[in-house]
Each structure stands twice: as structure tokens, then as C-alpha cells.
Amino acid sequence: MKAMPESLTKDQFAIKTVGIELIEAEPGKARAKLRLEEKHLNGLGIVQGGAIFTLADFALAAASNFGSPAVSIQANISYFKAVSSGTLYATAIEESRTTRLGTYLIRITNESDELLALMQATVYRK
Amino acid sequence: MKAMPESLTKDQFAIKTVGIELIEAEPGKARAKLRLEEKHLNGLGIVQGGAIFTLADFALAAASNFGSPAVSIQANISYFKAVSSGTLYATAIEESRTTRLGTYLIRITNESDELLALMQATVYRK
Amino acid sequence: MKAMPESLTKDQFAIKTVGIELIEAEPGKARAKLRLEEKHLNGLGIVQGGAIFTLADFALAAASNFGSPAVSIQANISYFKAVSSGTLYATAIEESRTTRLGTYLIRITNESDELLALMQATVYRK
Amino acid sequence: MKAMPESLTKDQFAIKTVGIELIEAEPGKARAKLRLEEKHLNGLGIVQGGAIFTLADFALAAASNFGSPAVSIQANISYFKAVSSGTLYATAIEESRTTRLGTYLIRITNESDELLALMQATVYRK
User: Are C60 and C72 in contact (CB under 8 A)?
Assistant: First the structure.
């Protein structure tokens, strides 16, 4: 993996609080994972939507923060299947990039490569 | 506040891991808050998008989980302003409800009532 | 109504092809209407989603095109209720504005003020 | 192309008013096209967002209306590049399907296969 932007390595929420690990990052593409534990579950015993969102958002940050810094301005996520254990993966791919704007698709899957959620997000570069 | 659905009180991710507190919940309307700490920040020193999303998602769950259980199937969030300290509030309001589907707007504000983010989300009831 | 931006009066698709009429426009707020005819219906005999979207998009353009030109970069729409006749209204309100970005909510209603659809959209100013 | 659902052939808005043509349809995948004319342009002389949305929405309807009827309940579209002439194509692919819900990605391209817009949409089956 190329050098990860330093801002990512210091993401306390994604890395420490939630426990996400970056496993691949290059301009326009990144992959992160999250090993599910009890602390990620909601009251129904399934992974909380915010944990899945954070995993996808971290992959997005890793794929888009090359060159000038990029901040998310909008994200749309659809949830397909609930899970309560195992490891989740998020793969972010750049679909479009202009000077200031970029759009990414992020697929969230489990170890069997089943699609659990799909995010479409926009970043802005100052 | 009316009796909070038990499933909400057991949300380990929102309540314990992230530290969100529900402050109001009735059918179709709910309000939650998050006191920002270092653990909610990203590598740029501002609150991570996933923490804001989780706050909004928890208010959504509280507003929609009356009667039959509701699960989020889609959420779209726009971010307007970055913050790094203080307390955040999310207020969820039901905009539409049919037998199986519901749509909600969730406004995320700071202590000065500035709008920091806005979420539009859909839930599904089995 | 203040002077409508000239670019709006020349919108052939919204005005001529679809038949939308602007009824109010000021910075950050606009209202448009569409009298439903057979030509707006889909194969199920209800108004096609694209007609509703275009109505909302035109109100968005009218609310956001003051000062520098604004182009839509993203829109999320939820549909609640199908209709096949009558007049539809779209009311766009600015929720956030920075130098380059703006976010708007657009409510689509019928003559009885029932909420038929809701759009959240982002514009970009060069 | 397999037999197109009759409801699609009767879509007056998409087919007659806007001028969209379906070129491929099978369960979970469909492709439609729109030859741009003056009537599709907005006041800036570029194709109106509602025309692009309608093209994508028609491909979505063709990909999802096999078996029980499906109605769109939500769609999120991002716009990347403005065009004013030529032919546009929309390709809809099913990403997820349960008994009642389905999620689709729709890519809108020009004749050079450049990605002009991207839609993520949810349908509901009664």
C-alpha cells in the first residue's frame, strides 16, 4: 500500500473508537475492514447502521485524500442485509473527478462477498 | 419522555461506543445529543462524519420505532459545517408514513442551533 | 415576483416540453407548479417520476440561481404518494449556503397540500 | 429483447413527451437511450437535469418491472458533466433484490461512453 495520508492514520473515531483498519489505499481506490464485536451492535443484535456508514466513510476518505484534501459533502447509503458477526469490508472506487468535486461508490460486503450495503458519496476539494 | 422502545436502550454502538444520549422520543419525533470528545474526531481534528451519521441514525430509530419495528433501508446525508467541540443535537421528524414505509428528516445542529448537517432517510416495517 | 433569472425563462425542457410554470422566486426560495395532463403519465396511469423530479428541479434552479449561476450536482428524491390528475406544486427552500455550495429541500404537494415527494439537493457555484 | 412489460410501452411521459427509447430489457438489467434535441435543453443550453433523470428512471423501470410491479420510492442522482447534443444512454443494473425491495445503479453515458451521471435508486414491490 502506498503511504497513507497522515490525516487518515490519526482518525481517532474510525480507528480507535470504531476499530476500522485500512487494508489498501491508492488514488481513487481504497479498501477497509471492520471485525464485528458486541460493541458494534444495536438493540436488535445486528450491526448498527452508523458502524457500517463509518466503515464506508473511512474507505471513501482513503480513496479521495490524495493530492489536495477532500471532505465529504454528501453521502447516500442503502442497506440490504443485516449481519451480527464476522468481518465487513468496504471498497471505495472513484467514479468521477473534476478539480473540486469527486463522486465515489463504496460497496460494503461480508467475508462471503455478499453485498450488504452500497454508498454513493460526493467529496469537495478546496 | 414516553417509554423508549427497549431495543433502543440496548443499542451498544450508539450509546456505549459512540456515547449518544436520547433526550426525547415520541411517535414520529425524537431528539438525541452527543457531547463531543477527542474520540469523535477524525485526523483533521474535526468530528468524523460517521459520528454525526450515528447521532442522526439514532434519532431516526427513536422516532420510527413505535408500533412495529422499523429498519433503515436508505439514508442520504449532507454536511454543511465542520465542528470539533461542543454538543451536537439531532432532531428527527416524520415526513411521511404508510403501512410499510416511512420517510424522515433529521437536522443536526450545534448548541447555537446552527444547521451542521441534514439527513433524509427511509425506514421499512415488516 | 422579483425578476426571474433569464436562464430560467429559456428552459425549454421544463417550460415547453413538460409545461412547468414558475409562480414565485426570490433568493433562497421558489415555487413552481405543473398542471397534470395525459402527457405526464406513465404506463400505470400515474404521473411519471421524471415529471415530478423536473418540477422539483425547476423550483430548485429558481431558488438557487441568484448571484452567481448554480448547477445541480446531486439530488435525492423520495416518493410517497401517486397521483394522476390535478395540479402539483414544488416549493424549494435553501437550508445551507456557502460560497460554492448550497443545499435545498424541495417539497412537492398537491392542491390539498398533501406531501407527495421530498427532494434534498446540492448545487455548486463556480 | 424479451417482451417489454406492457406498462412500459404505455409510458406517455418517457416515450412521447421526452422521447426516450428502450433498447434492452431483461430481469435486473435494462438500457434506454435519448437522442438530444433542443426541447431537452435548459436555459443555459445544456440538457436539463430532469431529462437525464427521466432517462435513468425509465431504464430503472424496465430493469425492475419483471414479476410483480415495482414502483420507485427513492432515487439519488449525481451529475458530473454537462452536454448539449448527441445521444445519451442509461444502463440500469440490479444490485440487490429482496421480496419487496430492490436497489439499482443506473449509469448515464454519452456516445463516447463517458459517465455523465450516476443514479442509485430503490423500488418497492407490493
Answer: yes
Q: What percent of chain C has pLDDT over 70?
A: 97
Q: What is the predicted pLDDT for the residue at D1?
A: 58
Average pLDDT over residues D84-112: 97
Of A76, A103, A118, the CB nearest to D80: A103
Q: Is C57 in contact with C72 (CB distance < 8 Å)?
A: yes
Determine contact: C122 vs chain B, CB below 8 A.
Answer: yes
Look at B53 and A58 and tell me if their CB atoms are within 8 Å: no
D120 pLDDT band, cuts 50/70/90, is: very high
Which pLDDT does position B1 carry in this prediction? 58
- For chain D, the average pLDDT equals 95
Sheet holding D87-97, edge to edge: C21-26, C29-35, C87-97, C101-109, C115-125, C70-79, D70-79, D115-125, D101-109, D87-97, D29-35, D21-26
Chains touching A (at least 3 CB pairs under 8 A) are B, C, D
Inform me whether the C-beta atom of residue D112 falls under 8 Å from chain A C-beta atoms.
no
Q: Is the pLDDT of residue A112 over 70?
A: yes
Please list every residue in chain C whose beta carbon sits closer than 8 Å to the beta carbon of residue D57.
48-50, 53
Question: Model's pTM, two decimal places?
Answer: 0.96
Strand order in the sheet with A21-26: A21-26, A29-35, A87-97, A101-109, A115-125, A70-79, B70-79, B115-125, B101-109, B87-97, B29-35, B21-26
Pick among A83, A96, A97 to test the D interface (most D CBs inside 10 A) = A96
Q: Are A81 and A116 contacting, i.e. CB atoms less than 8 angstroms apart? A: yes
- The predicted pLDDT at position A68 comes to 85
Summarize the confidence of residues C103-122 as an average pLDDT: 98
Could you tell me which of D68, D70, D53 has the C-alpha nearest to residue D119? Answer: D53
Q: Which chain D residues have a beta carbon less than 8 Å from that of A95?
A: 80, 115, 118
CA C117 – CA C47 distance, rounded (Å) = 12
Task: Delineate the domains of chain D, giving CATH numbers in brackets.
Answer: 6-125 (3.10.129.10)
